[in-house]
Design goal:
The protein has 9 helices and no strands. It is mainly α. Helix 3 packs across helix 5. The longest helix is centred in the C-terminal third of the chain and has 33 residues.
């Protein structure tokens, strides 16, 4: 099933507010395209935003998104219905994103052997009213390892619990807390430095 199929498979006889994610998973695996379309409609936009921030590449984020929903449709992976569907969805997407990052690293290493510099990737997250602040935060995130950035987005932006993130990434809660604390500390230090520099600049201009 392609993305176009997900979009055009309009849910019929399915009331979005009445059907749980878990029931939709069962229906999609039983061969009901409309059920998968409704799952896609519910979760794809936010999941795509998360993948864009982690991967920093729109096309790869789209690919991971589609692969994730195809895995659900084809019934691959173990889904315990006593858990939250959203956690399971992000677990699949996060692991696929980490595979992409590892591939990106290998490609970058090969490119570095043949070029003097690499142009930074465009970040779609910069489309915000408070662009200057987000750009500064993003600049800090670019200096950190991928596992720190992923933990930050899952906890701060997607608001998953530490236990859920631990299950997704395979790291202990203590390790995740340490990574997020380190990331927030770096962000606060950068913002504080900016504030000092702006104050000095304003004083020198008067």
């Amino acid at each position: 099933m392609k993305e176009a199929d997900l979009v055009t498979a309009k849910p019929q006889n399915l009331q979005a507010h009445e059907v749980s994610d878990e029931d939709l998973v069962r229906r999609s695996r039983a061969g009901e395209p409309a059920a998968l379309a409704l799952l896609y409609e519910r979760h794809a936009p936010r999941l795509l935003g998360y993948l864009r921030r982690v991967l920093r590449n729109h096309e790869e984020a789209e690919d991971v998104l589609q692969d994730t929903f195809m895995r659900i449709f084809e019934g691959r992976g173990n889904y315990a219905e006593r858990g939250r569907f959203r956690s399971w969805l992000y677990t699949i997407a996060t692991r696929k994103a980490m595979d992409c990052i590892r591939n990106q690293t290998r490609r970058t290493e090969l490119l570095m052997q043949n070029v003097d510099c690499i142009t930074p990737l465009h970040d779609p997250w910069q489309q915000s009213a408070d662009r200057q602040l987000l750009e500064r935060v993003d600049a800090v995130l670019q200096t950190l390892p991928p596992e720190y950035v992923t933990a930050f987005h899952l906890r701060i932006r997607e608001e998953f619990r530490y236990a859920e993130i631990s299950a997704m990434c395979g790291d202990s809660e203590g390790t995740l807390r340490s990574r997020i604390h380190h990331t927030l500390k770096k962000i606060h230090q950068a913002l504080a430095l900016d504030a000092v520099l702006q104050t000095r600049a304003s004083r020198s201009s008067t």
